[in-house]
Design goal:
Layout lengths: L8 H9 L6 H13 L4 H14 L3 H13 L14 E5 L8 H9 L5 E5 L9 H5 L11 H11 L1 E5 L6 H11 L7 H15 L3 E8 L8 H17 L3 E8 L7 E3 L1 H11 L5 H16 L8 H6 L2 H12 L13 E6 L4 E6 L1 H13 L13 E4 L6 E2 L4 E7 L5 H8 L3 E4 L12 E6 L1
Parallel strand pairs: 1-4, 2-3, 4-5
Antiparallel strand pairs: 5-13, 6-9, 7-11, 8-10, 8-12, 9-11
Bound molecules: uracil (URA).
Length: about 425
């Protein structure tokens, strides 16, 4: 005889539909029964839509997060002998920060377990970028990951499917039912994976703006506050930076070109915005494990961060000296007049790079590591007619027209003195203790 179920999914849907509050037991059962396949996709879609429309209390969000963690394994770095500190970004165009950040923080003796993902749609994935380095391996066993953290202080690898498996199933369902952008669901999805990963400290880079997952700053702020609360409740020292993603981050959008730009930052150079965010996040990650007043910039200037990068890339089979892939074809767009670049919208440039082959439309698609866009000017720069503004790179020239279509109207050279898009700060606010 089948075991008696504690609740009926339809009753729980009624509660949320009618703006009621689900109990801890009800949420625990719902997530478990959905993971087991007892609660059907149709029922869970009704539930996620009810949550999307009516929200959840802080207690309900915490229970949902804990139930998703309980659906899989929970890792622990307790035996490592050093503090662990991690970063999660909600994703954006040209966001390669994890690459210079991980070695930079590891220089100071903290261990950085970066369990990362692949890109889907216009936002790139850290693993896709690193896989443009010949030999580099994303898939490590738990033992290999632990050993690398112990011996080298940092690792960037694929998150195993054992962490919060309920989230994988739920996220795929939300993706096809228009329920991704619900703050209780996003917060529990991100934080269940990060808490299950076992990091002691976590810094969240929560983006807003045209290239971000949530465009509206108020929604991003609410997401940041919710996630910081979940982290603290679970005993993970957590803070968040609210950062602007209206303009692409840095000058490179793609995979191999983003690795190149990250290496420039590690060599003490690189675009000012990438350096600013890398340094701010490194300070935050170190402060959460008790290291304040560390001279993070010095480690970029004096080669320590670069040495650590080479060390961790080699530890995962990569050759830090091997040439990175270069696309067979390029197409450069020139300034159409003398003036100032007043606009450069992140989302269309992200879509353009994706159409060149840098991203994937379906999970199983491969990415073209050499494809992408290199910007030669940023908003506020003075330009002269005929000066290169950006270059598209692809292996197949037939990809250029659709990429050009994506960026059409997304950049503009204006007269000197015209207001420039997003003259405001990159880092708008810090949220946390
Ligand atoms: N990233 C996640 O991991 N989950 C979400 O719900 C949204 C973004």
């Amino acid at each position: 005889m089948a075991a008696l179920e504690a609740f009926d999914a339809v009753d729980l849907i009624h509660v949320k539909r009618d703006r009621g509050e689900l109990s801890t037991e009800q949420i625990g059962w719902l997530v478990d029964a959905y993971t087991r396949g007892y609660v059907a996709d149709e029922q869970m879609s009704a539930m996620t839509m009810a949550i999307f429309l009516n929200g959840m209390t802080r207690r309900e969000i915490r229970d949902l997060t804990m139930a998703m963690i309980a659906s899989g394994e929970r890792m622990s770095f307790a035996g490592l002998g050093k503090p662990t500190t991690d970063k999660h970004s909600t994703g954006g165009v040209g966001d390669k920060i994890t690459l210079p950040l991980m070695p930079l923080v590891a220089v100071f003796g903290a261990a950085v377990p970066q369990l990362s993902g692949r890109g889907l749609g216009h936002t790139g994935g850290t693993l896709d970028k690193l896989e443009s380095i010949p030999g580099w391996r994303a898939n490590l066993s738990n033992e290999e990951m632990f050993a690398q953290l112990r011996d080298h202080g940092g690792v960037i690898c694929a998150a195993g499917s054992g962490l919060a498996p309920a989230d994988g199933k739920l996220y795929a369902l939300r993706d096809i039912t228009g329920t991704v952008e619900a703050i209780p669901l996003i917060a529990s999805s991100i934080m269940s994976k990060k808490i299950a990963e076992g990091t002691g400290a976590l810094v969240l880079d929560v983006k807003f703006g045209s290239g971000a997952f949530l465009k509206d700053i108020e929604k991003s702020r609410e997401l940041a506050r919710t996630m910081v609360g979940l982290g603290e409740d679970a005993g993970v020292a957590t803070s968040a930076l609210l950062t602007n993603m209206n303009v692409p981050l840095g000058l490179a959008i793609g995979n191999a070109n983003e690795v190149r730009e990250s290496v420039e930052v590690l060599a003490g150079g690189g675009p000012a915005d990438v350096v600013e965010l890398t340094v701010a996040l490194a300070r935050e990650m170190l402060a959460l494990v008790g290291q304040v007043d560390v001279d993070v910039e010095a480690a970029l200037r004096d080669g320590r961060a670069m040495d650590k990068w080479r060390d961790v890339i080699r530890a995962q089979g990569g050759d830090p000296d091997a040439p990175l892939p270069v696309a067979r074809e390029t197409h450069t767009v020139l300034a159409d007049r003398d003036g100032v670049l007043v606009e450069q919208q992140a989302l269309p440039f992200g879509i353009g790079a994706w159409r060149l082959g840098a991203g994937r439309a379906r999970k199983q698609d491969p990415v073209r590591h050499a494809a992408g866009i290199d910007l030669h000017a940023k908003p506020g720069d003075t330009v002269v007619k005929g000066q290169p503004l950006f270059t598209l790179s692809a292996d197949e020239p037939e990809r250029f027209p659709r990429a050009l279509e994506a960026v059409e109207g997304a950049w503009r050279v204006g007269a000197p003195g015209e207001p420039v898009q997003d003259g405001g700060p990159l880092i708008v606010e810090r949220i946390g203790r």
